[in-house]
Amino acid sequence: MIAVSEPNAPSNKNCPHNAAINCTSCRLSAICLPLALAQDEIVQLDEIVQRGRPLQKGQHLYRENDTFTSIFAVRSGAVKAYSVSDSGEEQVTGFYLPGEILGMDGIGHNRYASSALAMEVSAICEIPFANIEDLSGKLPNMQKHFFKLLSQEIVEDQRHITLVSKHTAEERLASLIVSISARNARRNLSPLKFRLPMSRTDIGNFLGLTIETVSRVFGRFAKQGLIEINKKELTVLDIEALKHIAALGH
Amino acid sequence: MIAVSEPNAPSNKNCPHNAAINCTSCRLSAICLPLALAQDEIVQLDEIVQRGRPLQKGQHLYRENDTFTSIFAVRSGAVKAYSVSDSGEEQVTGFYLPGEILGMDGIGHNRYASSALAMEVSAICEIPFANIEDLSGKLPNMQKHFFKLLSQEIVEDQRHITLVSKHTAEERLASLIVSISARNARRNLSPLKFRLPMSRTDIGNFLGLTIETVSRVFGRFAKQGLIEINKKELTVLDIEALKHIAALGH
DNA sequence: ACCGCCAGTTGATCTACGTCAAATAGAACG
DNA sequence: CGTTCTATTTGACGTAGATCAACTGGCGGT
Fold first, then answer.
1. For the CA atoms of chain A, what is the radius of gyration?
2. What is the CB neighbour count within 10 angstroms for residue B4?
3. Cα–Cα distance for residue pair B65/B228, rounded to 1 Å
4. Which among B106, B109, B151 has CB closest to A108?
5. Helix H segments across chain B?
6. Amino acid B12: pLDDT
């Protein structure tokens, strides 16, 4: 699925898109799949992980209804998942940042239930699912971790259902900002100053809002001094206020 | 968690709430957990399944934040799962009918992320998760089946996100009716005439609508000759029309 | 440097559904 | 059998956010 790097590609250890690294040396290992594994288990994981050449912005990692083969970890960049219903409308189902795992919606029916698209140049690790099943049979830690991962996605999705079905536009957007901020913090990036990798259209679609409403709410937040926003560059000025809005039930 | 039946309880094989049955003889085995298992594997599953005395209407099977111990299969009756957010509002996250599995949202953080409440007298099978992990390590079929189950719930939840964030009240309600109809068909019950186990309030909450809107849409569907509804007794008169409405993207 | 294009902003109006309020109808209870 | 309580229906009105429309500002291409 992922194109393999040329054998003679330059091997720059400092480039974040570089494929010539392994899980042990990857600086995301603390938050990514190796999280739950012991040293010697990570070695076994490393053997089945495939690291390909970076995806360009706009390229697909996989498409809805493709035969399910692998799950993926984002190493750098940002990916969105979306599905298109019978009736033709698009639904963005998630944004994936470095260290996060996607593709698990394909397990259930052996086909991906969504498409995954790089929102910027992204390096991806591919892990064939057959190997994961195999390894999970041998390593209880691995099995446990995958059960957890899947379950956590269920909980997240249910939270998202609450968000879009019971919360106002301001609460939804505040919630997204807080979520991205927290995920950046986990990766030791600034939780208060970052670039939103997704378009207004994607944000609106994800949150069940129109792009006009997203734009207006950003405007209101800026006017209230909660954020500064310039195109995709976001500075959070009052994270507590945003958390408060996000947690509000009206 | 489930109260065990008295040892001297009468053992009436014909009673659907009866605990004195096993997976092999259970008429739901074709659609429930044993679905993916071989004969001899079902025997192993049987050994870990605990069958308790029926839950009365309004009783909880587990509560949000309880320590996660088991997943559950509905044998008869109907259960709703719901969670209460920080801000205090309730979100119904699912309805579970006989043959369906609930509690998997607890795996991720070792606590249930929702509460489960019997909407009518319900018989429940409890399966301790530690045993499932154990068995999954030994039986690849079992492991595979659980990965699938979890993944399918993710896909369902994502569909539900689309439903509540992009569809009209009529589309949402039609979709629910079609879903329950299909699930009844799977259990060899009439797909066209059945009792809705949940209140209008639950329906509204699940679909992100107020109870007034639910009531009005039921009324409209009845006036259009698509259904007949009397309190909770529903007769579907034109399932194709409902499917068409449910699939519509506006 | 000019053009064309897309992403985003801003404003004016519209509408599906929420909110509030009142009426009705079972079930549950003594 | 009335009485109370709760679930549901029905009606009148209000509103958050959608829709429609016009404008603005980067940015890639030549």
1. 19
2. 12
3. 40
4. B151
5. 39-48, 129-138, 140-166, 169-186, 200-207, 211-223, 239-247
6. 47
